[in-house]
Amino acid sequence: MTLPDRFEFFCPAKTASGFKALEHLPGDLEALNARRPLIITDPSSTREGRVQQIAKAFRTSGLTLGVYDGIGPDAGMDTVKDLFDLYLDRGFDAILALGSGPTVDLAKVVNIAVSGQPEDLNRCQGVDRIDHPLNPLVFIPAGSGTGTECAGEASLGDRTYCSAHLIPDLVTIDPRMIGDPAPMRIVSGAMAALTHAAEAYVCPRPHPFAESYAQLAIGFVMAHLLDVVRAVMAPKGKMARLADGFSLKKDRLALVNAACMAGYVYANTPRGLAARLGQAAGRGGEVDPALAMGILLPCALEYHAHRQGRDLSRILRPMVGLERYCATPAGQRFAAAMGSLRHLGNELFVLTETAVPRTLEDAGLTRNALEAVAQSVAAQDPDEDLARACRTILEHAFDGRPLTA
Amino acid sequence: MNDFRKITPGGRPFTRIYLNVMLWFVGRAIQAAARQDPAVKREFAQLPEGFTFTLTAAPDGPSMVVSKDETGRVTYLGRRPANHPLNVKLTLKHMEGLFLLFTFRESTATATARDRLYVEGSLAEACAVVRILDIVQVYLLPKPVARLAVKRYPRWSFKRHAWDRTLVLLRTVLGV
Amino acid sequence: MRLPDYYEYCCRVKIVAGHEVLEEIPALLARLHAGRPMIITDPGVAAAGLLDVVTGALKDRIAIGAVADAVPPDSDLQAVSRLARVYGEKGCDAIIAVGGGSVMDTAKGVNVLVSEGGEDLLAFTGAGALKKRLKPLVAVPTTAGTGSEVTLVAVIADHENNRKIPFTSYFLLPDVAVVDSRMTLTLPDSITAQTAMDALCHAVEAYTCLAKNPVSDACALEAISLIAGNLLQVVENPGHRDGRLALATAATLAGMAFSNAMVGMVHTLGHSVGAVCRVPHGTCMAILLPYGLEYNMHKNGDEAGELLYALAGEAEFIRTPRDQRAQQTVARIRALNQALHEATGARHPRTLGEVRDRDGKALVPRGKLADIARVAQGDASIFYNPEELDVDDLLMVLEAAWAGLPLDPQRIKRG
């Protein structure tokens, strides 16, 4: 690898993952100089026993926990205001954000306010406007996130904040916290992680630090996603489910790790085309952006390889492991990688009884809508090549046609 | 704020009792082995006079303190003698870690590798303490369990396995 | 890619690497709300002209509060207090540490005193003694080896009581590591070899010892392939900028790996050879690395075998049957040492017996090996080694490394 002339990497989060990870929380909070944590989460966390598990892990710690479990789907600035008062009135000094996407975003927004002034919520909107470290924030994934929780981003309604200070100080991944969400959410989170990681792995400027994380995310998704979906979907008896439980826990733990790694990558690399197009395709609301990304990913990579003449064959390595990578002749590697990606997509389609789309058409997009999606991405960067690339990728992803030389 | 509540997590009284019993046992066994086993004797001989160490869990878990006095005699001092200066402190980050250790699900090496154990004080002396703990575990535990607790199960003479072990166990119980 | 039952990974340091990144330090400090840094470095760095490169890159862009260029090789409590006073007198608000391990450790110690106040660094030993962020610290490594720009440990000597005191805290981590290829461009070939082998050793041990985790593994592999792909080239052609950047990046990656996954018996023995016989750390690492792999091979042969890909490339990896890969990894490292020995005009020793000081006197007399083995028993890295090592095992390995003979597999006691 020839390194670029300049590169940087920043991941201030500590990751703690696995058996008894929760029990480390009190000590880790202490190390962040925090003693009064407030859990911010949604009602399902109490209903499904996650909050109680955290409380159990805090036995013998001598700490008390505040719990706010009222984050609903439409929580907004009112909730932020309530939590701001709660945090300051009761003297909390750290937030444990338990859950995924919107819950964590809201917790991050609360943290901006309580770490400075309420006005910061307006002042700090946009990119890189937070100029000081925030109070400690711990992210505890519940297994259905996309990994962007680990990135330096938060959005609430039409407000968006983007700053490395929003990256959690600590990410505690404990198998006991990984709930039982719908298979579609698992697939969607995994596809977002895979897309961000894969596009970072082959981005035109090689980046040794981001790549280290990216290959983990790719590897974990490719190795574990199908097993998870198979186990969750299979209509099995109670006993068989019980037997599956243990390996399912491990597989899901790997997927959550993948999402977090992808989140750290996301915080350090520019978005790729599949991610941007998927995001744009999802803007209308009828298509899940993460699933669209999964469909677009092979087409975008093929565009880079076949139309731009870039050699992306190395992406096979994290996908299938060193042994099988080496066994594949150099000239077949890229095709094999795309084969693996499409195999993954097709299997998911079958396993989920067609709920996971294989093409953008399956996903419910119309051919007429493609142009608008292409335009919205191409408009970010007035470049004729980009517009052409977007159109080509979208059309192939719409039909489910591989993009050839 | 209907959705807010405060939780004061309880203690773990039964785990605490179990760990106190185990630590008492191990503490007394170290004292016994220091009088009976040549390798443990040797280790203690190289430690300074007045050397004292503890094994405990944060923030105020069960603990044991063992000390070597001016005459070289090694004594188990109990759970937490007041104001005894410590040369080495081995701390599990949480009581669960100590529980994993004393239910033989994680060895000291595993606990260290999993960032559950930290050492304060002289590292060289801490290494000696871990070697002593390893030998004591081999004395106390049946072979299949001890194999989980140490990296390499030692090849001891029949005398050490049978005779010394009996005496260490007797001394542990009797405290002589 | 195995997910361990439990792991922790943390590297909070922002890394900025490239050919001309020193110039970015003023902006990086401004983001940390600092504008009057104190530069801490040692006489060697100053004499090599590197301090001038740094000040040249900073001048006009930031006011340098003070320059302290006399950090001794094993810095002690007095030196730290003295520098902390200078920092206060000159009204500095940040530290730029330019140097190798010793300078970094000193700067971390100074940062504790200037941030927490007081004169007594000893008050901050022990777990959890530091509770809050310290002053901004920018680390500029000049050796491409130690990785201390990303480690959370500082070892400071207490000469009065003849001991070394370790300080450990996430707060000791520098805020930014600025890895600039110009800082290593003038390293002499034997030092380049030593320091790169130090970094290689960090990566290999991180990958093969007990606290390994997926992130440290990925960093380690990346580091190994960068070193394997660039080291000989750079030793033969010291002005190779891209190669220098690759080695410096590898050292940082290896630092990220080992500060999380820790190291094993190569360091156990290497620290002790260094302490007893005053042999440079990197030299010990280079000589002992193959032995650490041989000794543990029955426990971690799979991992050692996987390293062959990063070390020797794809062709050799495929050509070597799976059950011989670990052996081949060892052979590759021995061959690398041999190649460095030849490329440096025999200044890179291959065995402990070959290590000489400037006057050509042997530094490691055979008679000292027993002492070294005894000291090694007190090195905490032994905890992380896959296989147990008692004093006889340590001596057996040292004897082999002294003579340059491979380990006799019959004499390795398997647990």
Keywords:
heterotrimer, A: 405 residues, alpha/beta, Rossmann fold, Dehydroquinate synthase-like, alpha domain, 2 domains, 6-stranded parallel sheet, 3-stranded mixed sheet, 16 helices, 9 strands, globular, B: 176 residues, alpha+beta, Nonspecific Lipid-transfer Protein, Chain A, 5-stranded mixed sheet, 7 helices, 51% helix, 18% strand
Helix/strand/pairing class of chain C, anyone? alpha/beta
Shape of chain B: globular
CATH superfamily of chain B: SCP2 sterol-binding domain
Overall 3D geometry of chain C?
globular
Q: How many angstroms does the end-to-end distance of chain C come to?
A: 25 Å
The total count of helices of chain B amounts to 7
The biggest beta sheet of chain C is recorded as: 6 strands, parallel
Question: pLDDT below 50 for ≥5 consecutive residues: which ranges of chain C?
Answer: none
Looking at the structure, the CATH topology of the largest domain in chain C is Dehydroquinate synthase-like, alpha domain
Fold and architecture overview:
- The complex is a heterotrimer of chains A (405), B (176) and C (415).
- With 405 residues, chain A is α/β, with parallel strands linked by helices.
- Chain A has two domains: 14-177, 3-Layer(aba) Sandwich (Rossmann fold), CATH 3.40.50; 183-399, Up-down Bundle (Dehydroquinate synthase-like, alpha domain).
- Helix content of chain A is 53%, strand content 11%.
- Chain B is α+β, with helices and mostly antiparallel strands and 176 residues long.
- Chain B is built from seven helices and six strands; from the N terminus they run βααββββααβααα.
- The radius of gyration of chain B is 17 Å and the shape is globular.
- Chain C has two domains: 14-183, Rossmann fold; 189-411, Dehydroquinate synthase-like - alpha domain (Dehydroquinate synthase-like, alpha domain, Up-down Bundle), CATH 1.20.1090.10.
- Chain C contains 14 helices and eight strands.
- Chain C has a six-stranded parallel sheet, with helices on both faces. Chain C has a two-stranded antiparallel ribbon with strand order 6-7.
- In chain C, helix 4 (77-89) packs across helix 5 (101-116), helix 9 (265-277) runs antiparallel to helix 10 (281-312) and helix 10 crosses helix 12 (325-343).
- The longest helix of chain C is centred in the C-terminal third of the chain and has 32 residues, at 281-312.
- Chains A and C meet through strand 1, helix 8, helix 9 and helix 13 of A and strand 1, helix 7, helix 8 and helix 11 of C.
